[in-house]
Specification:
The protein is α/β, with parallel strands linked by helices. The chain is built from 7 helices and 5 strands, in the order βαββαβαβαααα. The protein has one domain. Helices cover about 35% and strands about 10% of the residues.
């Protein structure tokens, strides 16, 4: 059985603990939480919405070797949190649609578990993405909403292809 890559979540303590997907992943033993940016693993892939390079399947090897890190902070405070030096290799996720109840059907407004699951799926860890989402009642919704997008992104060779795919998708349609 394939081992789950090391998952680290920077938790800024800015959300409702009862609804926090990062805390739930920790409670299930699926991720390690850190409360300071400086404790993010060096050389890991850091999912950063302000990253300049798109996450792609070519990031799989780095995830296997060094892990995947996500930033769990409110959107209003994200820029401030990320202005500090973030260790690791920053990558922004391609456009995905939220399946969580708070931001349902909103492009790019993903919960922490959705961001991690999206990255794992794209990097070829489809079963691990499904495993993480399975602990949430609404987890399957994220996969259903994004199935076509995730499959397309997972077939890309690199970041450039991801960007080309995004520009060819019609995100202005009624579907989103």
């Amino acid at each position: 059985m394939e081992k789950l890559p090391r998952l680290t979540i920077y938790h800024a303590k800015q959300c409702d603990p009862k609804r926090c997907t990062g805390l739930k992943l920790k409670r299930h033993g699926l991720a390690r939480l850190v409360t300071s940016i400086k404790f993010l693993p060096r050389r890991a892939i850091v999912l950063n919405p302000f990253g300049e390079i798109a996450f792609s399947p070519s990031d799989r090897q780095r995830i296997e070797n060094f892990g995947l890190a996500a930033l769990d902070c409110s959107w209003e405070h994200a820029q401030k949190v990320l202005s500090a030096h973030v260790k690791g290799t920053s990558r922004c996720l391609p456009i995905l649609i939220a399946g969580n109840p708070t931001n349902y059907a909103k492009a790019t407004k993903l919960s922490t578990v959705e961001a991690i699951a999206g990255a794992l799926y794209i990097a070829g860890f489809k079963n691990k993405a499904e495993q993480l989402l399975s602990i949430f009642v609404w987890g399957h919704t994220f996969l259903e909403l994004n199935h076509e997008l995730l499959e397309n992104y997972a077939s890309a060779k690199n970041s450039t292809e991801i960007i080309e795919m995004q520009s060819s998708f019609n995100f202005g349609s009624d579907r989103y």
